[in-house]
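[Target chain]
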Amino acid sequence: MNFSLTPEQAAVQQRARLVAQEVKAQAAQNDRESRFPRDILEIWAKEGFFGLSLPREYGGQGRDTNEIMRLIIARDLLKGE
């Protein structure tokens, strides 16, 4: 089984990593203040991370849920988790 990412999948992964770094300090502050992370959720929504499996005609990315699961499994296997 090939767990390699396609160029498109690698781009999504890279964007997710960049966004995670961008919100890391804010997430820590939200945790310290026991504050709901609405600001971070808004960033994730703007980036389209909530609409991964929604059809494109409804504003999503149109990804197959099986593809998403394969990416999650591949990530965990590669990290040894």
